[in-house]
């Protein structure tokens, strides 16, 4: 499926656990899923869905290896649909300085991005909460330090998740999930099917029909 045919709004109506459950029923299975490892958290915004535009940065030490931020802006504008900007902080100990703050955030907001993900840190927190896009990062930091982008449009690894330019990402308060583009169209229906199955159990557990003996008699394996 072409990226332009993906129904982002339909995916955004689901949370990451539901889409992960749905992916289990595809060839991806339980082992073929790729998602952030919990070392980053959502600091602002709601659900993100979009195509990855990637970059790398460094901040701890000075260097002559910078590329213009305009390269990132151009890459964002080259994607027809919603974009998730993914920035890998390459420093051995990431987080010395922030790429994302009020100014870079406002520019990316003006370009209409859906989300931002980094293994590094961000700043100007109060401003970021009003940007209208989701921010996932390892945390906050004070300084800019020697922050510069060192590459745009390269494969990156952020919070254990490998991301290539063009990958489809979905994220919420649980983390960020990479969705194989060829499986995207089928996921909402699978998620709905699973929710129905799960809600049957939940509804029973909350009902007057429920009894501990009844539960044991079912000898349930999964839930
Ligand atoms: O200094 C930077 O580039 C990061 C920052 O605080 C901002 O974008 O406002
Ligand atoms: Mg700032």
Describe this structure in words.
It catalyses: 4-hydroxy-4-methyl-2-oxoglutarate = 2 pyruvate; oxaloacetate + H(+) = pyruvate + CO2. It comes from Actinophytocola xanthii. Its EC number is 4.1.1.112, 4.1.3.17. Its cofactor is Mg(2+); a divalent metal cation. Keywords: Magnesium, Metal-binding. By secondary structure, the protein is α/β, with parallel strands linked by helices. It has a single domain, classed as Glucose Oxidase, domain 1, CATH 3.50.30. It contains 7 helices and 13 strands. Strands 1, 2, 3, 4, 5, 7, 9, 12 and 13 form a 9-stranded mixed sheet that branches. A two-stranded parallel sheet has the order 6-8. Strand 4, helix 4 and strand 5 form a beta-alpha-beta unit. Helix 2 packs across helix 6. The radius of gyration is 20 Å and the shape is elongated. The two termini are 34 Å apart. The mean pLDDT is 96.
Essential attributes:
Glucose Oxidase, domain 1; alpha/beta; binds magnesium ion; single chain; 223 residues; binds oxaloacetate ion
Q: What's the name of the CATH homologous superfamily?
A: Ribonuclease E inhibitor RraA/RraA-like
Order of helices and strands: HHEEEHEHEEHEEEEEEEHH
Helix content bin:
25-40%
CATH class membership = Alpha Beta
Q: What is the CATH fold-level name?
A: Glucose Oxidase, domain 1
Q: Outline of this structure?
A:
InterPro entries: RraA/RraA-like, RraA/RraA-like_sf. Helix content is 28%, strand content 26%. By secondary structure, the protein is α/β, with parallel strands linked by helices.
């Amino acid at each position: 499926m072409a990226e332009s045919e993906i129904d982002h709004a339909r995916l955004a109506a689901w949370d990451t656990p539901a889409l992960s459950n749905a992916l289990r029923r595809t060839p991806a299975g339980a082992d073929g899923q790729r998602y952030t490892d919990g070392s980053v958290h959502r600091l602002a915004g709601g659900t993100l869905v979009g195509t990855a535009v990637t970059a790398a940065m460094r901040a701890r030490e000075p260097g002559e290896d910078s590329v213009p931020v305009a390269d990132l802006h151009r890459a964002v504008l080259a994607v027809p649909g919603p974009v998730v900007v993914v920035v890998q902080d390459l420093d051995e100990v990431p987080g010395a300085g922030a790429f994302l703050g009020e100014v870079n955030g406002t520019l990316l907001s003006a370009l209409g991005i859906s989300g931002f993900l980094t293994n590094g840190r961000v700043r100007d927190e109060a401003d970021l909460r009003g940007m209208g896009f989701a921010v996932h990062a390892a945390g906050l930091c004070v300084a800019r330090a020697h922050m510069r982008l060192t590459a745009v449009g390269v494969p990156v690894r952020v919070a254990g998740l490998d991301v290539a330019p063009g990958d489809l990402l979905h994220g919420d308060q649980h983390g960020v999930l990479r969705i194989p583009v060829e499986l995207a169209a089928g996921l909402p229906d699978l998620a709905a099917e699973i929710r129905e199955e799960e809600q049957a159990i939940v509804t029973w557990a909350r009902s007057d029909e429920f009894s501990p003996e009844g539960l044991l008699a079912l000898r349930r394996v999964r839930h």
